[in-house]
Specification:
By secondary structure, this protein is of the alpha/beta class. The chain is built from 9 helices and 17 strands. Strand 16, helix 9 and strand 17 form a beta-alpha-beta unit. It is globular, with a radius of gyration of 19 Å. GO terms for molecular function: oxidoreductase activity.
Length: 307
Amino acid sequence: MKAVIAHSYGDPDTLTWTDQPDPKVGPDSVLVRVKAAGVNPVDWKVLAGYLDPMMDVHFPLIPGWDVAGVVEAVGQDATEFDVGDEVVGYVRKDEVQHGTFAELVAAPVRTLARKPAALDWQQAAGLPLAGLTALQSLDRVGLAKGETVLVHAAAGGVGSFAVQIAVARGARVIGTASERNHDFLRSLGAEPVTYGDGLADRVREVAPDGVDAAVDFVGNGVIDVSQELLRDTSRVASIADSEVKQKGGHMVWVRPDHAGLTALGDLADAGKLTVHVDTVLPLSEAAEAFRRSQEGRTRGKIVLEAS
């Protein structure tokens, strides 16, 4: 098979598109023929070595954790799927080496769910990691129907999912974004506010009584602002601020979850969630996808497409 490979930590230019052995398929795994793979900021962070203190990374490394594709073979005890099934997955394993930026990936069944019929391959590939991150963050703060949630970086890959999931739960959503993304947020059902200095005052203009919960997908000190606005300062979760637990909130590191992926797929098929794809590139151009992700200016997802 062809795959995106790195032989050491480095920048996107260290990636090459080359031949690799086909993956071995364990008893509780299936072999997936990749149709598309989503790109997330964590992918280039793994490549840069930022996760080395917490994860075992082995080389040669095939990056990538998001996938959408077709089951090509099943392991001896993988009864959940059959050959020909269309699946999506957040294929994060205990050790990092055999990722999804390849023509084939061996995926444990616990990391997969059936592909939502309402999404095309590109959209489906952009769903798993970011969608689960949003879902698990909202669950962590206990968001319920009728409550108001503040979503930081609401127009990004994770934030746009959080907005849609919260709206589907019957919550009021206030989302921070640059002014160029305000109409986009309104289309998702959120009330946009501009981020930056004075954010707390701008939120109070639309929510004088404060908010019930907040989720942070950007960092940059927004936990303090969130807690100024929260009625219960513990109801804040972050994926980007390592000090959130010290401040009484919740740190979220997304976990593979078949049930969560299935729930996201159900929302998509019910017309309550869609995936906004910003850029599509061939798998062989993963380096360019990483560079665009590093810029942090995409609206929605960057996706790599298999030929």
